[in-house]
Amino acid sequence: MRREILISATTQESRVALLEDxxxxxxxxDRPDQGRSVGDICLGRVEAVLPGIQASFVDIGTEKAGFLxxxxxxxxxxxxxxxxxxxxxxxxERKRGGSNGKGGDAKGSSRRGGGRGRGRRRxxxxxxxxxxxxxxxxxxxxxxxxxxxxxxxxxTRQVSLPGRFIVYMPFxxxxxxxRKIEAREExxxxxxxxxxxxxxxxxxxxxxxxxxxFTRESFEREFHGLRDTWxxxxxxxxxxxxxxxxxxxxxxxxxxxxxxFSGKFESLTVDSEPxxxxxxxxxxxxxxxxxxxxxxxxxxxxxxxxxxVEEQVQEAFQRKVDLPSGGHIVVEPTEALVSIDVNTGRFxxxxxxxxxxxxTNLDAAREIARQLRLRDIGGIVVCDFIDMESxxxxxxxxxxxxxxxxxxxxxxxxxxxxxxxxxxxxxxRIRPSLFQSLTEQCPQCGGKGRVYxxxxxxxxxxxxxxxxxxxxxxxxxxxxxxxEVALYWLESEPDFVERLSSRIKVRLEVLDDPLLNxxxxxxxxxxxxxxxxxxxxxxx
Length: 540
Fold this sequence. Notes:
This protein is of the alpha+beta class. The chain has four domains: about 5-35 and about 255-310, eRF1 domain 2 (Nucleotidyltransferase, domain 5, 2-Layer Sandwich); about 40-250, CATH 2.40.50.140; about 320-435, no CATH class; about 455-535, 3-Layer(aba) Sandwich (Hypothetical Protein Ychn, Chain: A). The chain contains 15 helices and 26 strands. It has a six-stranded mixed sheet with strand order 17-18-19-20-22-21, with helices on one face. Strand 12 (about 175-180), helix 3 and strand 13 (about 205) form a beta-alpha-beta unit. The two termini are about 55 Å apart.
């Protein structure tokens, strides 16, 4: 599989696309107004302690208070264990309990499927939150999740500082190795190397996937650099007044180079010369062998157009995504979960219906894994594959889905096919999805995706005017509607105004107003044209 990184950078926006065999599988962007905060370390003040959900809300200077669960308060931990590879920008998220108030999600405490192999930490007993924190306390915390929807940022006191080869954890004493380093001998070598170098009582580390085969010298250099950064943060915290930011993590491009770019990529292409030189300087210091893979794009056609990135990213905004077989999937985000429906569409096969369904489901499994990464969908996902009679075929589709999800940097967990034929899964959520980040709610439909039909608007006007006539206070009313609704009235019920006016004893006049939404209308009464709509419209 050919893997590439494309970076398009301007002063207004930086965009990064990860390609696998020419197809975009991940898309990230960074703008000055985005307020990217994952990985930032802040000095905050406890606003409230809630024993009922074993959590507290902490003011870190953001619009909404941050959410800190008791499981994210450091405890002594001297175990050596396998670890999730920190996936950049401090995003070593802990999927634990929360609150569905200002900052978290109380349902998270029973939905811990986002990680793998974390049973020891989940089963651990924590002291009551009220014994650890009190209102007004000053706490040093790190952001692990961006604010999403009505929820504030997720926080932890288990601070971690990611480098290229290791993640340094000043409040831990364990040495972990990324699970993605599978060779037993290499894992043993790295753990032994780390223990031999790590000074006593200086913290703990996780050796990252890219740290495979790294040397004692590179380990010592990076460890001491991260340790010095932490000592500076610690020193600032002694004199700073909360809420304040003490440390900002690497931004998008720097984070991608630090966390992702390795020998597993064929190339890294960037269209900005200053960014190109910055990347080369960094790579020269950490892994000079990668320099030949860094390329500066000088083409006349924009970089993302040359690789057809823009067209593929648009898929993230479509409900329907076509499959190579002729079938399609439909992606529907909701407040609680994301549902994905699989359909054969125009693909009907030749003879065997089971073979037709299997091919469609296998195509869908591959595309679902890609769409989750491309759209950066997090939380609960329910996939409704086409029903299959053969258990062997069901297992094959599930294996295909899990196999392709194995390429995902975000932690995922996929459950067996349910009795209803559904595949349930969870995917680590750190920030809003791409769709949420790049769009805003429709002002016309309020996010519903539907508006009242012209016929429905007509009946709503009729009911409102019936109430107005019954009250008997108005003599003349002007009805303002969208032009399409006014046209529908004239074509479908040309006698509407005359008939209704005669019935309610009020002189009526219909006027079109292109500034109104399709399902809006206004009732303007009297010579002064006073808006009385809300007085007579009883339903939303």
